């Protein structure tokens, strides 16, 4: 009986870390896949993902959602054009941010605009 328990303990000690490592590797692979999908997804899909996030966090109504989606699609399209052309992203990002801020100022309520500005400041 003692030999059986000793063998069981050795087996658990050896296989336990191996199982845990497999789970970590799978989790990392999933995270990498999600990141790649986000960066390589078409412009409209990335715009929809970001706009849905804003709809949830800011409580956008359907009209606001449609307008914000249009603005986000345009901003992401501009970023993609800059990346493809190999242009300096720093100056272009400032222009895109100014465009988005101006457009959101006409779409969002003052409370939503304050909330979005705080979210944007955290992200930057």
Label this structure with key terms.
mainly alpha; 124 residues; elongated; 2 domains
Beta-strand content: under 5%
| Average of pLDDT | 82
The computed structural class is mainly alpha
The biggest sheet, with number of strands, parallel, antiparallel or mixed sense and barrel status, is: none
Which overall shape is indicated by the principal axes computed on the Cα atoms?
elongated
Give the CA-CA distance, first to last residue.
Answer: 63 Å
Helix content: over 70%
The number of helical segments is 5
How many domains make up the 3D coordinates? Answer: 2
Give the tally of β-strands.
0
How many whole angstroms does the radius of gyration measure? 24 Å
Give the topology string: H per helix, E per strand. HHHHH
Spans of at least 5 consecutive residues with low confidence: none
